Write the structure tokens for this entry.
Amino acid sequence: MEEIKEGQEIYRGRFSIIKKALYRGDYAIIKIPNIPPNAPTGQRELVCEILLREFEIIKKLKEKGCSYIIDILHPEPIIREYPILIFEYCPKTLRDIIDYGIDEKTALDLIHKITIAIECMHKQRIIHGDLKPENILIDINDTPKIADFNAIPAREKGIKEFYTLEYAPPELIEKEIIDEKTDVWQIGVIMYELIEKKAPIQSR
Ligand SMILES: Nc1ncnc2c1ncn2[C@@H]1O[C@H](COP(=O)(O)OP(=O)(O)O)[C@@H](O)[C@H]1O
Ligand SMILES: [Mg+2]
């Protein structure tokens, strides 16, 4: 039986494409590699490897009981012509919440949950490195879920531009230093943005 039906594309990033999907009859999200038809040699392998590594990282965090990390619906990537990762569908991101506006108490509750997730990640020696409102999803129960762990395999592969300028601490921009404090800085920027509706440092 066909377990997964690919639906509409909702996002196209540098390494991957996000699509709506039906998985075992329920709404889901799939993340697949972005392989342009004219991709240079090796690009296909690179993006597939990044995606598979991202999946491994998320799976490990979920197995270690980290709450507030995006849920995976299928225990392994589905391999067709390319790997397909299947995630729970989240109706919003933290960006939508910022745009809409929230009170400080709700902001505090969200940040509290996100910091629990970060603490759990750091115990597993996993540094996200690209925390920003677009990478924090809000599930159907209004619970925040950290997503998008591909900055980690990107770093492992020596790709330098894995982070987002507005959320990057000075030592990352100037000296490419990344450690647990990077995530702490990024959560600080997000916290400011939740209250002030704009990031403290604008890159544009
Ligand atoms: N599980 C999900 N549910 C709903 N939307 C999602 C989900 N995963 C990703 N998205 C949407 O797709 C965007 C990109 O996903 P992300 O995993 O961050 O990919 P990329 O690595 O290309 O940035 C997110 O900012 C969000 O808007
Ligand atoms: Mg992202």
Notes: The two ends are 49 Å apart (CA to CA). The chain has six helices and eight strands. The mean pLDDT is 95. The longest helix spans residues 43-63.
